[in-house]
C-alpha cells in the first residue's frame, strides 16, 4: 500500500474512532444508556438468531460480551479504513453514523435526550473525515501536518473514551451509602449463621456462601446500568387494587429480612458452574404484593429493568407463604454489586434467573401471561421454569489422575425450595451408595456431599444422583438447557495411579 493510501485509510479509522469516543463521552455525561457503539452491540444481541446466541454462550461463556465488542470494533474499523480509501468514503462514514442513531432509537428504553450522543458522534466523524481529506498528491510538509493532526485527534479520542469511563455521577458513593445504611438497619428476619459443617470445601466443593466477586454473572447488558439509589424508584402497577410508586427510602422503610438463597441459571449444563449462593438482604415481595392487592387473574408478574430487559414470574409462586421471594438490596453484607443489580433486584428461590431474578429493577406490572411476553420467552425458552433437582461432582475433576489409596468424591446438590434429602453415588456402574451430606442450612440452598471409595489402579467413572426432601429422585433423562433447564445424572471419568 502506498503511503498516501495508508494515510487515507488512517483518516477513515481516526474519524470513526473520534466518532465512537465522542459518542461514549457525551452519553456518559448526559444519558448513560445512549452510547451509539454499545447500542449497536445491544441490537446485535437482541436480534441474534437463537443458534448464534447459544453458540456464543457455550463457546465464550461469560466472556461473550468482550468477544462481541472486540469483533464489532474490528468490523467497524475495517469499514472505516475502507471508507478512507473510497472516493466517496464519506457516504460510508455517514452510514455508520446512521446505524448508531438507528440502534439508539430502536432501544427499548429510548427517549429524546438519547439522540444527542449518536448525533454528536455522526457530526464528529464526518467533520474529522472531511477535514482531513486532502488531494492524493501532497508535499512532505503538508503530509507531516496532516499526520500530526490525525495523531492528535487519535490521542484526543482515546482520552475522551477513557474520560467517559471516569464520569461516575456519584454512583460509587451511592453504593457506599447503601452499604452503610444496611449495616446499621434492623432486621425483622435474620439468616441463621452458616454452620461450620455446611460445606466440604476441603474436599473440593465450593464454599457454602459464594464471595460476591465469584458469584456467577449472566445478563444481556453490555454496560452495567448505573442508577443511584437516590434516583431510583419502582412502579408497581397493572392488575392491583392500589398502584404504588416506591423510592429507595420507601423500600428501606419496610421490614428488612436476610435470606440465604442459591441462585442458578437455566443455561447451566449438567456439571456447570452457573450456580452460586448468597445471603440477600431485602424486602419480602409477597407482603408488598399483598399491600398492593393482587387482582384476580393476574397470573404473571412482569418485571422490567432500567435497560429494558424483562422477565415474567408466576404470581402464584411469589405468593406462596414460605417461598421467600425478595426485592433484594444487599448481598453478603454490602449493597448489591453493580453487576448483580444495584440498587434493587428480584430473587425468587426455586426459579431459574431468567423468569425471576431481574436486576436493576424499575417496574413491576401485575398482568397475565397472555398479555405480555418476556425477553427469553420470545427466544424459545419456557414460560414456567422451576429449578430442576440437580447434583454435580466437584472431586475428582474430570480426567484427573489421583493417587492410589482411598479416594474421596465430593460435590453439590440442590432442589429449591424443598431441599435435598439424600445423595447417592456409584462407581463404575456398581450399586448406589448413600453419600454423607453437609449440615443442612435451608431448602432454598445447595447441599454438599462426600463419598469415600477404595479403588484399584486404572480408569473409573463416578456417577451421582440427588433426591429431594420429599423423596423425588433426580431424573436420569438427559435434557439440554433449552427450553427449561438441563437434566441427567452427572458422571466423571478419572484415573487412579
Ligand atoms: N436486567 C437483567 N436482569 C437479569 C438478566 C438480564 O439479562 N438482565 N439475566 C437473568 C438471568 S438469565 C440470570 S440467571 C440471573 C443471574 O443473576 P446474577 O448475574 O446476579 O448471577 O439474572 C437475571 N436477571
Ligand atoms: Mo439465566
Automatic annotation (TrEMBL):
GO terms for molecular function: heme binding; molybdopterin cofactor binding; sulfite oxidase activity. One of its GO terms (biological process) is sulfur compound metabolic process. Gene3D superfamilies: 2.60.40.650, Oxidoreductase, molybdopterin-binding domain. Residues 222-374 form the Oxidoreductase molybdopterin-binding domain. This is DMSO/TMAO reductase YedYZ, molybdopterin-dependent catalytic subunit. Keywords: Membrane, Transmembrane, Transmembrane helix. Pfam families: Oxidored_molyb (PF00174). The chain crosses the membrane at residues 67-86, 91-109, 115-132, 144-172.
Amino acid at each position: 500500500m502506498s503511503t498516501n493510501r495508508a494515510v487515507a485509510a488512517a483518516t477513515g479509522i481516526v474519524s470513526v474512532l473520534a466518532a465512537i469516543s465522542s459518542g461514549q463521552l457525551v452519553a456518559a455525561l448526559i444519558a448513560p444508556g445512549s452510547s451509539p457503539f454499545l447500542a449497536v452491540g445491544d441490537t446485535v444481541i437482541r436480534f441474534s438468531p437463537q443458534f448464534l446466541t447459544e453458540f456464543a454462550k457455550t463457546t465464550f461463556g461469560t466472556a461473550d460480551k468482550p468477544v462481541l465488542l472486540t469483533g464489532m470494533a474490528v468490523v467497524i474499523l475495517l469499514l472505516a479504513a475502507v471508507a478512507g480509501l473510497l472516493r466517496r468514503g464519506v457516504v460510508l462514514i455517514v452510514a455508520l453514523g446512521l446505524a448508531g442513531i438507528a440502534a439508539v432509537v430502536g432501544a427499548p428504553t429510548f427517549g429524546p435526550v438519547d439522540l444527542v450522543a449518536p448525533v454528536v458522534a455522526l457530526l464528529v466523524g464526518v467533520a474529522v473525515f472531511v477535514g482531513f481529506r486532502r488531494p492524493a498528491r501532497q508535499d512532505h510538509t503538508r503530509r507531516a501536518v496532516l499526520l500530526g493532526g490525525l495523531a492528535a485527534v487519535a490521542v484526543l479520542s482515546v482520552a475522551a473514551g477513557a474520560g467517559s469511563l471516569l464520569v461516575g455521577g456519584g454512583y460509587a458513593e451511592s453504593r457506599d451509602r447503601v452499604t452503610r445504611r444496611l449495616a446499621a438497619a434492623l432486621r425483622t428476619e435474620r439468616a441463621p449463621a452458616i454452620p461450620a459443617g455446611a460445606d466440604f470445601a476441603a474436599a473440593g466443593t465450593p464454599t457454602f456462601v459464594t464471595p460476591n466477586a465469584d458469584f456467577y454473572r449472566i445478563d444481556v447488558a453490555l454496560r452495567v446500568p448505573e442508577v443511584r439509589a437516590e434516583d431510583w424508584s419502582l412502579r408497581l402497577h397493572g392488575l392491583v387494587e392500589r398502584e404504588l410508586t416506591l423510592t429507595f427510602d420507601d423500600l428501606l422503610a419496610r421490614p428488612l429480612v436476610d435470606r440465604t438463597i442459591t441462585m442458578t441459571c437455566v443455561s447451566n449444563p449438567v456439571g456447570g458452574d452457573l450456580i452460586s449462593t448468597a445471603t440477600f438482604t431485602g424486602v419480602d415481595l409477597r407482603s408488598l404484593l399483598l399491600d398492593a392487592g393482587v387482582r384476580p387473574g393476574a397470573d404473571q408478574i412482569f418485571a422490567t429493568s432500567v435497560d429494558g430487559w424483562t422477565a415474567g414470574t408466576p404470581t402464584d409462586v411469589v405468593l406462596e407463604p414460605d417461598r421467600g421471594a425478595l426485592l433484594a438490596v444487599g448481598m453478603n453484607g454490602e449493597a448489591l454489586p453493580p453487576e448483580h443489580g444495584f440498587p434493587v433486584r428480584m430473587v425468587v428461590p426455586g426459579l431459574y434467573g431468567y423468569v425471576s431474578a431481574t436486576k436493576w429493577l424499575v417496574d413491576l406490572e401485575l398482568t397475565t401471561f397472555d398479555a405480555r411476553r418476556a425477553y427469553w420467552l420470545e427466544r424459545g425458552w419456557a414460560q414456567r421454569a422451576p429449578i430442576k433437582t440437580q447434583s454435580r461432582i466437584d472431586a475428582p475433576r474430570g480426567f484427573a489422575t489421583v493417587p492410589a489409596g482411598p479416594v474421596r468424591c465430593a460435590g453439590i446438590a440442590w432442589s429449591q425450595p424443598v431441599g435435598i434429602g439424600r445423595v447417592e453415588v456409584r462407581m463404575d456402574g456398581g450399586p448406589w451408595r448413600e453419600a454423607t451430606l453437609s449440615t443442612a442450612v435451608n431448602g432454598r440452598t445447595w447441599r454438599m456431599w462426600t463419598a469415600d471409595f477404595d479403588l484399584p489402579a486404572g480408569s473409573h467413572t463416578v456417577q451421582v444422583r440427588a433426591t429431594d426432601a420429599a423423596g423425588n429422585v433426580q431424573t436420569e433423562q438427559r435434557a439440554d438447557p433449552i427450553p427449561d433447564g438441563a437434566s441427567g445424572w452427572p458422571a466423571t471419568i478419572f484415573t487412579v495411579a
